[in-house]
Amino acid sequence: MEQLRIDKRIKTQKSKILNSVKNGKGVNPNTLIKYDWTADEFVLLQSKIRNKRKTNGMAFYLNNRARINKTKILNRVKNGAKINKSTITKYEWTADELDYLNKHLRNKTNKKITEPTPLLVLTIDDVKKIMNNDTNIKESSKITQIQTLSTFMKLFTDVTTFTEVFNKYTDIQIIDIVTAQYPNLSTRLKHINIILKVYDLNKEFSMFLTKPRRDNLHNASFETDQTYRSNRINEKEEDETDYMNDFINIFEKELTLRKKEPASIDHIMSIIYTIGAYSSQSLDSGNLMYVPRIDELVDIKLVKDDKEMTSDTQNYYNYDTGRLVINALKTDNNSIFKYDHIINPLACKYIKINILRRTPKKREFLFPFTKQTIELKIRKNVLPNRIYRKAFQNIYHKILNKPLASMSKPMAHTVDTSNKDYLNNKEYTRDEIIENRRRIADVFKRSSTS
Q: What is the reported pTM?
């Protein structure tokens, strides 16, 4: 506002001078050098100079231009005007003049100066919280993602935070490091996708990473995924694994444990994967109810009364009645793939003996162990879970002639998943089918005898 007032006053004074000259009055040379004039105004005023300098006024101005302009600048600043840095640098000043003028510099932008925004810092714990707040996936998936995050960070030993990885390494370097550490395509894909997961879940991180970097990582993920899928198709076409011996042996192992250490924890784990998968003691193929996954066995809560089954997201087992309720599955939440049935009475008997032998503190869950411990025990007493489920899928379809659609419920997956991920290209002759059915009938008969 002050500057506007000064400019208005100067404009008024110049207008008065020009009007007086136009009315025939002369002008003092000092007046000529006091203000800035256009070329036409200066010629007019120069022609009206009152004294002897009139004839050479232009030469006077040119010879004294620097001093004249400096005087005008100092006068304007003394009257309250601000000055640009570029104006000061045009002329030479005394030390006192320069100090004075620097105190009256104009802020061209007239904007408030703010501190630069600090770089985003996300620690490992910060990223874990982001993942745990994801409401679109199951708890078991969150655990897997957090485990992948931990192994991802171990690849970068010279950083302490998640975001520091992206400050220190380029996208190509990150992809190369993950690729070198994980030649297995599936594992590599998980570690690249963990970055994209955080990008999708957290707006601050997405702004920090930027879309071009996200696109670079996404392209690497897509290429890895396509290679992985192509390899799986090729592997399936070449896979002629015969799961018959695996299928028979898991029932033989249960019979051995029943004889040598009945109702032990190893025995009841074997039971859940064999005779406990059926609802009748005869093990008829139509009574196959539930082919389990490890994730679903981690937190099966023990109850003695069905009234204690209060949550529709918790898995339960009533050890008095043998009622098994599986609400939370590894597969996507889908009401079709939930289970509520009474298991094989022979299996129920041995499980109850085991539970009643325990101390009260160990009666909270059917298997009072971590997922890793359960997995090790299943490998020892049954089969690796994936092979176990492939054995059931292939034997029931190819030997026992069960349609894939009828296996969707006990396997908790679709026909498409059966074809894509479980069935292989093994074919059996008629004689092999007859012999294998005889072997199955024999082991089922022995397994059904208490």
A: 0.57
